Structures
1.
Amino acid sequence: MEVSYDGSIAMQNIAKEYDTPSAYEYALGYNSVYDEYQRLRPDDPIFTNAVVKKFTSDEIANYKENGGTDWFNLLTRKGEINKHQISLSSGTEKSKIYASLGYMDHQGVIKLSDMQRLSTRLNLSQKFGEIFEAAIRLNASTTKNTNIPVGSSDVGFSRGGATSGVFSFNPTIAPYDENGEVAKHPFNQQHNNPAGLLLTDFNSESNRLITNGYLKADIAPGLFAKLSAGYDKVMNNSRTWVPAEAKNNLASSGEATVGSFTNETQTLNFIVQYNKNFKKHNLGIMAGTDYQAFEYNSLLAKSTGFKTSAYKYNSMQSGDVQKTITSKSSSTIFSYLSRLNYSFDEKYLLTATLRYDGSSKFAEGKKWGFFPSIAFAWKLYNEPFIADLNLFSNLKLRTSYGKTGNQAIGNNNSQPLLGSRMEYVIGNTRGVPIGPVSPGNNDLSWETTKQTNFGLDFGFVDNRILGSIDLYRMDTEDLLLWFGTPSTSGFGGILKNAGSIRNQGIEFAITTQNTTGIVDWSTSFNIANNQDRWLDRAGLPFAPEEEFGPVRGIYGYEVVGMFKEGDDIANSAQPNSIPGQWIYNDVAGRDADGNWVETPDEKINADDRVLLGSNTPKVTAGFTNNVTYKGLTLTLFFQGMFGYDIWNNAKIMHENPFHALQLEGLNKNAFNFYTPNNQNTNVPTPVANPYGGSNNKYLEDGDFVRLKTINLNYQLPIQNSWIKAANVYVNIDNAILWTKYEGLDPETARAIGTKSGSENDVYPNSRTYSLGLRMTF
Amino acid sequence: MKKLIYIFIASIILFSSCEDQLEDKIYDKLVPGLYFQNDNEAIAAVNTLYGVLAGNGWSYYGAGNDRIQMGQDAMTDVFAPASGSGMWYELNYFTWKTDMYLFSQNWNWPYKGISDGNYIIEYLPEATGVSDNVKTRVLAEAKTGIALFYWDLVKSYGDVPLIKSFSEGVKAMPTQSPKAEVIDYALGLLEEAVVDLPITYDDANDGRFTKGACYALMMKLYELNGDNQGVIDATSEIMNLNKYKIVDNYLDIFAPDNDQCEEIIFAKQCLQDFNIGNSFLTYCLPGDFKRPEGIDIQHWDSYRARREFYNSFDPEDARRNTMYTEYENTSDGITVLPDDADVLCLKYGWDPAALIVFGTNDIVILRYADVLLTRAEAITRKSQSVEQEAIELINEVRDRAFNHNSDKMVKLSDFANADELLDWILKERGWELYFEGHRRIDLIRHGKFLSKAQERGAIDVAEFRKIWPIPQAELDKNENLIPTPGY
């Protein structure tokens, strides 16, 4: 019987903040934008319609004296994490038990974002008789979340959650008006005051139960059968409330939602395995079947138009306009499995597998896929001619070839479907029509990947140096791709098996035991290079010349400079540009038949978009050092990614000086814009360029190295009849980041979507300092 | 080994029933074979077309920036952006690019509606559970809807793909068909539909396509085709219905209770909520505008009526009463707009029921005053002379604008020739129909689209801007589409 406790407390702060101006700096910068814009566009409606006014010198002096609003500060705080876990384990030859109870409380760095989780686990296994063994595992958890909308797409907040909202109001605007209410934007209510977010209540509760068990029978020597079954259920309830007082753009009469969903998975698996050794031959045969069923149910009730903020989401019937949305879908997978293992003399190893998988997601007659694989390994170290070299302590050559299938798509994509469509009003009554919602695809089937692998494992000096090299190539065919179809089709797109891509690369890992004894020092290093490219774009849109370009290519205009005073702009490919605007590379145009040709046409338009970069890192690496001296262990873990690009979307939004005239918040650098007296700058003039669009000036190198973890553990020199071991540790997570990327963090920026990174709407990355205790009784 | 085989066989038996479960089960949708079983389902299908009018709730005839009517008028002399950047500025100052949301939304939604209409035309006739009278009416509504969607497409984009079938359209990578061919196709649908559509509906079905809507769409399509006789015939049919009239008060056409207005031939019906509301006023209100008691909608201050346009009105013209050069502000003072500032245009009336930005005022798409002025223009163009009937038609509209003041009526003798009268009709259409989505095509028809842009200092005034660009996303998805020349 063993009991252990693991607990820690931690503090968090935001690793990097935006470089926003003070109210004083903003007011000065704003006036310079105003002057320059007026110089360039004196008749602009923004002046004639008197929408904007300059800051007076009194106002500026006042801002200098009294500061302004630090919107980031208003919404953020120090984070805290508390974790406790107790576990006990006990067992005999015939029966084993393990139980644990864990608790975690996390107060996030953005206000109102909190999480509490309670989880418990129970594992039991028992042998009975000579033949049978049974086990039951139970895992239950309940999680409570309080959220603040972070992204601009969160419910009811079309313009700005906490992180993007920081920029919707500038530092000269006070968060609250003279009555103490959330202030409205001076002239444009499409901007939400971030202070309003603090009045919202978004919370959810998620309960999860995972249980599974098996019955195994040793029928005869070397022969057993095993029946396993499992059940996993996630039940989620959520409630949101945006009061009228939050002055939210699109929830101005109060908006409440109550929602729930359940996600159920059932599994049933039966295998029979037979192992036989004779002389130097080892044989293993396995055959079985596997069944998995998934079901999803959801319910969302939404109510708007509340006369009072007293009820929050607790009286949905009090809203004037109420809506309920439900959905249900399911899918199943059924598989036949078999595997053969054979080895000879501990030198030659062969593994062959055959899978025959069926998925309900695919079209009638296209549901089944056949996926074989074969692997061969040669334990060279066990050959006398290698062992006799006395050089290696391990040497193994591996090669494999196999096909795998992918069915990770949504449900109900193969059949044409009709369903609820956008509401209409007829006879002063609203209604929901039924119409085509999906074109279906009666050819939809498995996406398959053929993978070839060569590997070498090696060890030297009694395995104090251990390493491996792997070379792989994966060709994925019949990709499950969402094809945007022309709108003339009546549908946004169709899911099709089309195109193929290749991923190939090399992975290298090495672990060395540098010293042993009083100072025990070990190092692990791994590095991987991956290259992905299209083999067949299958007519997916974009840039004909990039047929074999990277899978997650980023396309846009290439900036080749900035127009300066005196340039002959009228005779350029951008005759309506002005000094201080980007010059784009004119690479292509159209021939007389309207076909794209790579010939400059003296015109900058969408034909000139080119491949600018890729969002997939070419190289990823990790580096760990463990040094132990007496009871003290220091762990340093570095990681890095190299050779990829990120859209700095925040920069596009917040370094556009024109946005000052809409009283939006900006980065400090926005005010370093081009003027005849400030020509040496990377920030264009406030007048919008009539040409181009997304361009490489806002595409940044995402390379970084991060000291991800510093951990110092001390094993207390206590050992007595009831304490088996005791450790205290301090840990710093996300300690140091080295990068040229100018946004907050290249990794959080990557978190949005797969096509291109953007950090405008993500939860900021924190640095976490924790102190922990681990004890075993 | 025998045991192993037994167990394997047993396992296959155990799970063989599972294989049947690979069926793709549908719970919250329907497959086509189960549809069109009864009258309600046929009506629910055609109602998709009325839903499509609001696009995604914001676009097309919806509530957002990319509304088709404002997109059309924003390119003209009646309009001024409130601010110096963004889409309203780009549209009014002729710097728009192919990737603007306005162009993609107003392409995508009409084609979605065409697809929905074609679905009905393709599958409803075979349905057995639907009664004949419902079938007939629903098919006629679907055809009229398709014609309306093509009208919007052709007037905006010129030559556009012609999709005549749902199932072929799903697979097609179409190229553009000539504008005239598309118009002829739409006119053909309307000729069929007009026979089967009623002149009016009961209250519960108010807002559906009527005979009048059919004829008014014919009028619009004939006008786009330059077919003056077609316009004269279609307008005669509308007048012969004896259903529509010029109502006494101009503002009533746009009031919250305008759904019974006898001047409106077709409108997008609105209620006070997301996806189905009229957001007109929100875009026109400055931040410090003091709203009338009991009105709680937002102020987005996006655009105004151009000052020169305001000045072009006769001060006694009641149609100018939607516009304000001064307003009471939230500090209880009066904000007087400077002489060179553009004026507020609050064309749709205040609605106490409005929520957030959404009023219940139906969005007027086709109305009788437009019919009269369009007829006057066609008569003048056809005869190439100043005809008494044209003068009377114009005066029927002016009579309301000037509260029956006969001094303000135009006379035969005011116009030396047809061209002078046509110039007047263009002005009269501006005063009558501003901000209703007709101005762009009116200016183009009268050859003044580019010169008017030049007058207000638009930046890139060029012939190609007379046609909206085929959206870039569509060109990217369908290489058979030919990019709109010039962009």
2.
Amino acid sequence: MQPNDLEHIARQIRLRDLQAVVEAGAGHIGGEMSAIDMLTALYFRVLKVNPDFPRDASRDRFILSKGHVALALYVTLAKRGFLPWEEISTFLKPNSRLNGHPNSNKVPGVETCTGPLGHGLPVAVGIAKAAQLTGAGYHTYVMTGDGEMQEGSNWEAIASAAQFGLSNLTLIIDHNRFQQGASLSETNNLAPFRPKLEAFGWEVTEIDGHSMAEIVPALEHRGPRPHCVIAHTNKGQGISFMQDTVDWHHKVPNAEQYKIALAELAEEV
Amino acid sequence: MNAVAPVKLHDCRDAFVAVLERLGAENDRVVAVCNDSVGSSKLNGFKKKFPERLINVGIAEQNMVGVGAGLANGGMLPFVCAAACFLTGRSLEQIKADISYSNANVKLIGISSGMAYGELGPTHHSIEDFAWTRVLPNLPVIAPCDSIETAAAVEWAATYPGPVFLRLSRVGVPDLLAPGHVFVPGRANLLREGGDVTLIANGTVTHRLMKAADLLAAEGIQARVLNMATVRPIDREAVIAAATETGAILTAEEHSTYGGLGSAIAEVVVDAAPVPMKILGVPGVFAHTASAEALLDDFGMSPAGVAEAARALIARKTR
């Protein structure tokens, strides 16, 4: 699949995500839009996964540690065939298996329940360590938010990944520069991430997280050490009035805004 | 007069690691995960035999539990071993989300639980762990009473395809169960029959109840004694039978009286068979400086203390 195709798929996923947020009256649309290009690249190009056998032992693993953007993962999984496309309309509805944070016991393709921040990376370290012990060839990916990196458990895991020499682990930091209440820089500014990860013994690649031409090679890169991809992204990417404003962490567009957003995304699709 | 042979006391960690090392030899998916606690978890033997399968994450309990969940996802059978106070207290959210909610096949082994660290003080006591863990779905909570039950519970946990919290001590206890005992989760063991009152405990306290029952028997009071290792799921049937057949239940545990074994039993009693109850344990305080055994005595769980509480309880019986 070529970058152009991936861009096309990403736009379709953005559109369905926007519609579902409006239908459900909730979601974390800003962080969903920042992550969708990478989710698309993972599920339509990089990950060796099979929707018909979601628990196949040799599958590549992906953990969405920033579990609050579950909807973006659900739409991506549905687009890839892990769940029915129509099921997205049940998002947050009573008894839907698609609640606000992904549940690995209910949703095929989800590896572990996430939601509380700072959980995905330690679990990913364990998955990668298992492959190191058994000689399994799968690769483990995990995506955190940049604000999420404020959780100390991530740094425990970063240190142990380096100690274990987990060359089969890739951490993607969705560096959209905003957290729930304010910008990263106003809150607890861990940026720049590169020197910190490098100090812990990781290899670091910085990319434009909305450029497939940069995303794909970064995710496919293999080296001798754990790899961190710092993806510079925009919160609300693809919808002009949402872009880079803290307001759109989990706001729902009103009718007028929805019309504008639909037009912008549809135009591209 | 014949001399009474001293009762042999067992550190249940030895029983745990003996089974773990055998499981490790039989199954190369068995791994031990720890937080720099190789010595205190008695994992040196495992480390020597299977160095690559001893995964020491260092002093980082949140990561330790998450790594355990990940190892299970990757097909391993992880035993995550750490002092119970840090395992449960420091990593409770990881236990909730990564283990319980995710239903990860991880065995959580809380070492030196209760007040085993005695004089080291309340930071190192783990008298809250029943309360914290037994509210979590999918997670059996088990405190074996002796080395035989410890070994049997570890055997069972290894075959059970889901998470388990096993709460061990380091304080020596005599063997109470028969060799060859098979562990059945959620089922209490009748250690002594009696119809006047039922005494229920687990872990390091069960053997104290046996001695209390001897004291009571000398006065003509016949106490039933149950070992109830499994706090969740609680043995409703045994609790209801104890209530209806003996009319009063005394519980004792090396744990806070808030939210532990006694509370779990009381939940059944009020729901299904109301009778007078007495819950012995640490009465919602941080313990004073003393050894583990002395603290149990000080909190009313010496054999004489239990017998006294049982007499007072029997006086409250209505039938």
